[in-house]
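hey can u run this one w/ magnesium ion bound, need the structure tokens asap thx
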Amino acid sequence: MPQIIGTVIRRTKNFYYVDIGDAELRLCHIRANLFYGNSKTNLVAVGDEVEIETTDSNKAGWILNKLPRRTILSRRQSADSSEQVLASNADKVLVVASIRSPPLRNVLIDRFFVAGSYGGLENVLILSKADLSTQEEISSIKNLYLSLGYNVLVTSVPESKGLDSLRKLMHKQTSVLCGHSGVGKSSLIRALFPNWKIRIGSLSGKTGKGRHTTRMAEMYRIPSGGYVVDTPGIREFQPAIEPNELDSHFVEFLPYLGECRFKGCTHRHEPQCAIKEAYKEEKISEKRYKSYISIYESL
Ligand SMILES: Nc1nc2c(ncn2[C@@H]2O[C@H](COP(=O)(O)OP(=O)(O)OP(=O)(O)O)[C@@H](O)[C@H]2O)c(=O)[nH]1
Ligand SMILES: [Mg+2]
Ligand SMILES: [Zn+2]
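ok here u go:
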């Protein structure tokens, strides 16, 4: 029986769909004994490279092994506080945020950015639905993230704005689109790749039983190279990190870390805190400092 390496591009409750580079996806089960001791939800995620064994018949194959992950985008699940890997081996996380509908929450952007930074991905901000907001609203948030050194794209699907830049950004890369439900993640993918079967307005559709109740990421192969991962909208996103690691994932905090009076300073109530001083001197923005506090206190 041939053993082949492929990429998991979708999963349901019981099956993993593996892309081995040809036209057909291989349906696989997981050989659980190979992963003894790991939590089930994390065994294999979308984006994982796996070694599979297939038969010529129409039967499902087996995932025998998982190759080491280069990056992970994960979150902490509220139900049992376990870590759930949304996508592995991606290069970029494209955090999509609309300014008006739904209203922008910069803390949510920062939560995804923390997860991206933690997992080894490049963070990019996509400000979507530009047709619904004013230039001033867009600039204020755009400039904040540009000043932190992030790539920021402004898009509008009805105006075809920013779509070429988005296509370039995704070229020969694996990109994960994340963000609040309804911000237009799927719409952006559909605008770029109209032939793919992408569902728009998914969360307002039927819930309950069915193929799409798994709430897992789905990955698509870009014909000219690279992959795109569409993820279900998330209202509350918890990065899977420890509170004492949080400060090192706020890029503008880095120059001040280690300068606080107290070792293990949480940068909240402690005296002689270098981060708080930088914030008071407006070297750290109020939005980001408050974001840090809010994430810290929720971890
Ligand atoms: N005005 C405007 N509406 C948009 C734009 N992009 C998407 N929409 C609309 O926003 C709604 C939600 O779009 P989706 O693409 O389904 O959003 P999503 O982020 O994939 O949502 P989830 O799958 O629930 O996470 C749809 O009604 C879209 O038509 C845009 O650029 N401008
Ligand atoms: Mg969607
Ligand atoms: Zn401090």
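The two ends are 47 Å apart (CA to CA). anyway lmk if its weird
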